[in-house]
UniProtKB/TrEMBL annotation:
GO molecular function terms listed in the Swiss-Prot or TrEMBL record: cell-cell adhesion mediator activity
Protein name: Neuronal cell adhesion molecule
Main location: membrane
Organism for this UniProt entry: Oryzias melastigma
Residues that span the membrane, as ranges: 1041-1062
Pfam families per the UniProt record, alphabetical: Bravo_FIGEY (PF13882), fn3 (PF00041), I-set (PF07679), Ig_3 (PF13927)
Gene3D superfamilies: Immunoglobulins (2.60.40.10)
Residues making up the signal peptide according to the UniProt record: 1-33
Record's compositionally biased regions (Basic and acidic residues): 1072-1091
Domain Fibronectin type-III, first and last residues per copy: 633-721, 724-821, 826-927, 931-1028
GO cellular component terms given for this protein: axon; plasma membrane
């Protein structure tokens, strides 16, 4: 049996009756998308298990994996071969804490004693889930039986089969043929290996004679290689047979093996049949003998071979079709043909099928009490499989709330008793499927699981996906709003996915802003805010352009870009789609917007590409560089067809260096009359390589030729030949395979060869005592391949230039290495120590130099998160950290707190990675938790409210409690006194009493582990005022008696103020008559500067500030801006009024003017009214 991942089809039934089921099944994708949060009650779910066919390495401890989640966390038990397995009775077997995974120590007992059929059960109070039947078997790599093989003697041209017959292994071995030097034997249309490992010769040749045909079997389970005894094959050619056996054979017998029409070696007969399972590989092979070697072709009757899944292997002798489907059933024909005829074989292929899911395994189903739903186990197979259901691993009892109908269980009016794990088992003769799907009956208000205030970034005109993962029972309805919530987001620009994700098909700058996701069901509402920023795309404003540069000159490629100001671009340059070459040159200069090559060489020619990457997009542009130079001088000058007055001169053009030769110039020297002086004789177009030259009598001619291209003239033809003056440069030795050595060098130019017949004398020997130099000559090449070398062995190398005139100077010795092979050993003694909750240091023992078998490049640490201790992460994401050099330790950064991790280490060289070390497991310690998932205010009253929250999405440890802080906030956002409340870990709500009404409060809630407190989630709420109190206040204010009382009090205050004002001004310094006599009518007198009627109040008693007034630090009373103030009209403390309070004159006496009087200018001297005076006094009382 097998447990599949949760997914597929599930549905809620909203109408009663069998006829509603097909329609409601269409809703299943939404139900399947819901994931029950782990803080809610739920039955167990198997999240990870070992494969059905679990083949173990007999040299390593055994791990049988079984992980599950649920609330409460499930307990685990096992059966072996159908019987209960009591772990406590087996001291060498332990079960991991909070896990069902078994770890078996094989140090005391052999691994084969633990073979059997294992099944894991995960159980809590809500149900039981079971794993597949896990068949544990030990991998095996038996030895070949020792046998003495007789030599095989065959006649040239006949067919031959060399049997391999490897021992049966588990898993089956991989077969290959090699010689004594571990070199793979060459295969071709004539010689090839069959599917069973035998080596077939369609016809043998003399060169097939050898005594080291060795069949090797590599067993992947134990990583071991076994070899068969070598087979000796001797091929007799027809001439030797004619010389020694003519008396025994007639002509027909002797030559009958020469040429013949094909016949099949395998398969036998003209027809055969094959049965293949759906989803597996279909392999058919036809190997024919004949001479000449037959060609193999394949056809299918009635249809074409499937494109993309068809492969022709072993030189067309094997037809392989991957992922077989029902359409591959039919008749296939292979044809073997040569010039003498053809032969056919037909395969009748039948496709069967083990059970397979049609639309995925059944999904978990979450329902509210009283709802309807259906579990569907839609599977197929060939023959049709049998489907059975169980509940909590027990037969389903008859129940009015559910009905089993073939591949469905229909639930109606569900109750909490329906919560359980239901098993669907689908089986036929070729296999089985097992799936667990739980039904969880819950009533749960909606919650949004996406982290709050998550920020998304997208490039303009690209698609944006805003996540809103949610949960609730009944299933919440999801709506999205932007900014002001004026309307929901729908229409052609938006698409709402079943999982709550909002898709903006084409993002524009106006789409930036705040988005709100709201989840609603009958039990409540939850919302979350996310933010979208639409960025401008990265653009290349100036692309690199094609350049043609003379060798030795500089060149610059420009690549100017425009990008969004908030994105940081990085520019990378490539040459011919690879990184810029790393050598001793320093001519490459990379600037922020350009690449410069200061000394261009021929090797710099190619295509240069600038790539600009940001975190959101990338762009690129390319341009070609062509390196040109003056042409090499022509060579191999030759004179022909000489007459008394003419001769034909021919030559071979030199290298053009990417610039075509435009013309050749022929010059001559007269050694009799003008020795050392060269004269232009004629020129010919660059397409010609000969010229008919006219001669003058009594002249001794010496000719030379120059070539011209767009760069300039070449050097003239060399005057004489000789031995090479130099040897090739750049000599190096590297291998491309573990058993070869490639010696390469930079060849000499024609000019450097100093004469015809240029060759290279290649000398090499293994760098060890007693090795002899091996020499070979190479012409027209710049490399030489040495086969049959030891793996990664040092060699001494020399390459010497040779021409027809002799050898060049003695070459220098260079040390190279034969080819690398992947390392054969793995790091050992792995240790792990956690620095903190997010980083750990890994240590290992490095491998020996002998086992590296190449240039050590470094070590790679592969690690992955198995699961969080509070949450399972089913998708294993393996990360790889690479460390150069001979490292023995490394730090793994960015780990998740309170999680289980696994890792192993590999060493790697230039060939690749070695075998992995043993896998080590470790756990990170607790860290501070993330913020609570949600914080919701409910039940607000006049002086209290209730806060409800969900535990953090990332607890990062055991939650030990919560801290709630809250404080009032006024209208200007000033914070009041903060209150702190400690809460227990199991609390998810709290009611706060004695709050101030009509007050806004801000709440901060964070979770704690033993490490400390995590970040807080914030929320604000307003305490509402009691409407009844407001109503009572309005009623009193509108009563008539209250209005009359207020008017009477106001009138009484007014009378008292007038009396006080009159009494205050009766004690002036001068009589009113004198005052009038001292001053004439102001209308008839011009106003002088010193007649300014404004000033400070001079009464000594009034220097004291009135109650409620503000006095500046210098003791002066500043002038109020109000027009009703008495200070605006006074310069002293004495004013006189009539008895009715009217102003009768301006006081006089010693006054002190303001310092700023002159600056303020003349003021109006109009007397104020008594009403204004009263308002002024009111402001002081």
């Amino acid at each position: 049996m097998r447990q599949e991942d949760v997914g597929g089809v599930g549905a809620r039934l909203t109408m009663k009756g069998r006829r509603t089921v097909p329609l409601l099944l269409l809703l299943g994708q939404l139900v399947a998308a819901l994931e029950v949060p782990l803080d809610l009650p739920q039955p167990p779910t198997i999240t990870s298990q070992s494969p059905k066919d679990h083949i173990i390495d007999p040299r390593e401890n055994i791990e049988i994996r079984c992980e599950a989640k649920g609330k409460p966390h499930p307990s685990f038990s096992w059966t072996i071969d159908g019987a209960d397995f009591k772990i406590e009775e087996h001291p060498n077997i332990i079960m991991r804490p909070n896990s069902g995974t078994l770890e078996v120590d094989i140090s005391q007992r052999r691994a084969e004693s633990f073979e059997g059929v294992y099944q894991c059960t995960a159980e809590n109070k809500h149900g039981k889930a079971v794993s597949d039947n896990i068949v544990v078997r030990q991998s095996r790599s038996p030895l070949w039986s020792k046998e003495k093989l007789k030599p095989i003697v065959v006649r040239e041209g006949v067919s031959l089969v060399l049997p391999c017959e490897p021992p049966a292994g588990l898993p089956p071995p991989l077969i290959f043929w090699m010689d004594n030097n571990f070199q793979r034997l060459p295969q071709s249309k004539r010689v090839s290996q069959s599917l069973n490992g035998d080596l077939y010769f369609s016809n043998v040749r003399r060169e097939d004679s050898r005594n080291d045909y060795i069949c090797y079997a590599r067993f992947p389970g134990t990583q071991t290689i076994q070899q068969k005894q070598p087979i000796n094959v001797k091929v007799l050619n027809l001439d030797s047979i004619n010389d020694t056996m003519a008396a025994f054979y007639n002509d027909t017998d002797l030559f009958s093996a020469d040429e013949r029409m094909p016949s099949f070696l395998i398969p036998k007969g003209r027809h055969s049949s094959k049965v293949v399972l759906r989803g597996h590989k279909l392999d058919m092979e036809c190997i024919a003998e004949g001479r000449p070697t037959p060609e193999i072709s394949w056809t299918k009757d009635g249809s074409d071979l499937p494109a993309g899944r068809t492969s022709f292997l072993q030189f067309n002798k094997t037809l392989q079709i991957d992922d077989v489907s029902d359409s591959e059933e039919g008749v296939y024909r292979c044809t073997a043909s040569n010039k003498f005829g053809s032969v056919h074989h037909t395969f009748h292929v039948t496709v069967k099928a083990a059970p397979y899911w049609i639309s995925g395994p059944p999904s978990n189903l979450v329902l509210s009490p009283g709802e309807n739903g259906v579990l569907t186990c839609r599977a197929s197979g060939k023959p049709k499989p049998l489907i059975t259901w169980t509940k909590n691993v027990m037969p389903i009892e008859k129940d009015d709330t559910m009905k089993v109908e073939d591949d469905m269980i229909i639930f109606r009016d569900v109750k909490t008793s329906n919560s359980a794990v239901y098993q669907c088992n689908v089986s036929n003769e070729f296999g089985y499927l097992l799936a667990n799907a739980f039904v969880n009956v819950l009533s749960e208000p909606p919650r949004v699981l996406t982290p709050v205030n998550k920020k998304y970034e997208v490039i303009r005109n690209h698609r944006a996906l805003l996540d809103c993962s949610f949960f609730g029972s009944p299933i919440p309805n999801i709506t999205w709003f932007k900014d002001s919530r004026s309307s929901t987001l729908d229409g052609d620009s938006y698409s709402l996915h079943d999982n709550g994700t909002l898709e903006i098909r084409i993002s524009r700058p106006r789409d930036s802003g705040k988005y709100t996701c709201v989840a609603r069901n009958i039990l409540g509402i939850s919302e979350n805010h996310v933010f979208l920023e639409v960025k401008e795309p990265t653009q290349i404003l100036k692309q690199p352009e094609y350049r043609m540069i003379k060798r030795g000159g500089p060149v610059t490629f420009e690549c100017k870009v425009k990008h969004d100001s908030s994105l940081i671009p990085t520019m990378t340059w490539l040459k011919d789609d690879e990184e810029l070459p790393e050598d001793d040159r320093s001519e490459f200069t990379v600037e922020p917007e350009s690449l410069t090559i200061t000394d261009v060489m021929d090797s710099d020619a190619g295509m240069y590409t600038c790539i600009i990457n940001t975190t959101l997009d990338h762009v690129s542009a390319s341009a070609e560089l062509t390196v040109v130079e003056r042409p090499d001088p022509p060579t191999d000058l030759e004179l022909t067809d000489q007459t008394k007055r003419s001769v034909v001169l021919t030559w071979i053009p030199g290298n053009e260096y990417n610039s075509p030769i435009k013309k050749f110039l022929i010059q001559y020297e007269d050694s009799l009359h003008h020795r050392g002086h060269w004269h232009n004789l004629t020129h010919v177009p660059g397409t010609r390589t000969s010229a008919n030259l006219k001669l003058s009598p009594h002249v001794h001619y010496t000719f030379r030729v120059l070539a011209l291209n767009n760069v300039g003239w070449s050097q003239p033809t060399a005057a004489q030949c000789g031995t090479p003056d130099e040897n090739p440069t750049g000599v190096q030795g590297l291998g491309t395979e573990p058993n070869n050595l490639i010696i390469s060098w930079k060849p000499l130019t024609r000019l450097q060869s100093n004469g015809p017949g240029l060759q290279y004398k290649v000398m090499y020997r293994e760098k060890k005592p007693g090795s002899e130099w091996i020499t070979t000559n190479v012409a027209n090449n710049s490399r030489f391949v040495v086969s049959g070398t030891s793996t990664f062995a040092p060699y001494e190398l020399k390459v010497q230039a040779v021409n027809n005139y002799g050898e060049g100077p003695e070459p220098a010795v260079v040390v190279g290495h034969s080819g690398e092979d992947v390392p054969k050993s793995a790091p050992t003694e792995l240790r792990i120590s956690a620095h903190n909750s997010t980083a750990a240091e890994v240590q290992w023992k490095t491998v020996s130099n002998d086992s590296i078998r190449g240039f050590l490049k470094g070590y790679k640490v592969h690690y992955w998160r198995e699961h969080g201790i509070h949450r399972h992460h089913p998708d294993r994401v393996e990360k790889i950290l690479t460390f150069s050099g001979n490292r023995s330790h490394a730090v793994l950064p960015g780990l998740h707190p309170f999680s289980d991790y696994s890792f192993y280490v590999r060493v790697f060289n230039g060939r690749g990675e070695g075998p992995p070390s043993t896998t080590k497991h470790f756990s990170t310690p607790e860290g501070v938790p993330g913020p609570p998932t949600s914080l919701v205010v409910s039940n607000p009253n006049l002086d209290s409210l209730t806060l409800q929250w969900s535990p953090p999405y990332d607890p990062n440890g055991h939650i030990t409690g919560y801290t709630l802080k809250y404080q009032p906030v006024n209208n200007s956002n000033e914070l009041g006194e903060e209150e702190v409340l400690a809460l227990a870990a199991n609390e998810t709500s709290v009611t706060l009493p004695n709050l101030q009404s009509s007050t806004r409060y801000r709440f901060y809630l964070n979770a704690k582990t033993k490490i400390g407190a995590g970040p807080a989630i914030t929320q604000e709420a307003l305490i509402m005022v009691d409407e009844a109190m407001v109503s009572r206040q309005v009623d009193i204010a509108t009563q008539g008696w209250f209005i009359g009382l207020m008017c009477a009090i106001a009138l009484l205050i007014l009378i008292l103020l007038i009396i006080c004002f009159i009494q205050r001004n009766k004690g002036g310094k001068y009589p009113v008559k004198e005052k009038e006599d001292a001053h004439t009518d102001p209308e008839f007198q011009p106003m002088r500067d010193d007649d300014c009627p404004f000033g400070e109040y001079s009464d000594s008693e009034d220097h004291k500030p009135l109650k409620g007034s503000r006095t500046p630090s210098n003791g002066t009373v500043k002038r109020d801006d109000s027009d009703d103030s008495l200070v605006d009209y006074s310069e002293g403390g004495d004013r006189q009024f009539n008895e009715d309070g009217s102003f009768i004159g301006q006081y006089s006496g010693k006054t002190t003017s303001r310092d700023t009087a002159a600056a303020e200018g003349p003021q109006s001297s109009e007397a104020p009214s008594p009403i204004n005076a009263i308002h002024s006094l009111n402001s002081f009382v």
